[in-house]
Amino acid sequence: MRISVIVPVFNERQSILEVIRRVEEAPFEKEIIIVDDCSTDGTADILRQINNGRVRVFFHKQNQGKGVALRTGFQKAKNDILIIQDADLEYDPRDYPRLLEPILDGRADVVYGSRFVGEGPHRVVFFWHMVGNKLLTFLSNMLTNLTLTDMETCYKAFTRQVLEQITLEEDRFGFEPEFTAKVAKLGVRIYEIGISYSGRGYKEGKKIKWKDGFSAIRCIIRYNCFG
Fold first, then answer.
1. Does the predicted TM-score (pTM) go above 0.90?
2. Separation between Cα atoms, residue 109 and residue 140, nearest integer Å
């Protein structure tokens, strides 16, 4: 079965070609959909030079946020299974087989790749980021009645049938709690597998900030309690 890999990009000129190479090397027939969210560091120039049938690149004329870039990618995707892939090097496409296995064998409709379980290598990074992620996941689980260990993970794989049953609204990083709340309300089969993780620091280009954590709390409450 063919898959669609959705890659939202903003100012990742140092990593974007390596990410594309790693995704191309991952097993499974696939289309790679890159959505550049108006990068200003030369990323867009690099992407404009790509000319092959395996990678499709789309450009936003102004920066709108990760959630908007994902919605653009979802609209362009042609296949029945979708995977979200960040454009940095924190997540390893070699985890795709394990991420997709529960969907391909008919057990799952949505699969989360958790950074906090499993035996894969994990770079040691920020303690308070870990605490923040676990707090957000705990709050989300309280309201969704799920038992996830990593709601905020980038790696989410899901079927087109699931995607077509929800309407996504968040423009930035609020996508993660919004998506989780909405798939939980659908009652679909959700699995979680451990993945490797090579987290980076702010000097290396990490973008998420503490204020995004407060936004995530707002989204958890909004989409679980009010619609």
1. yes
2. 19
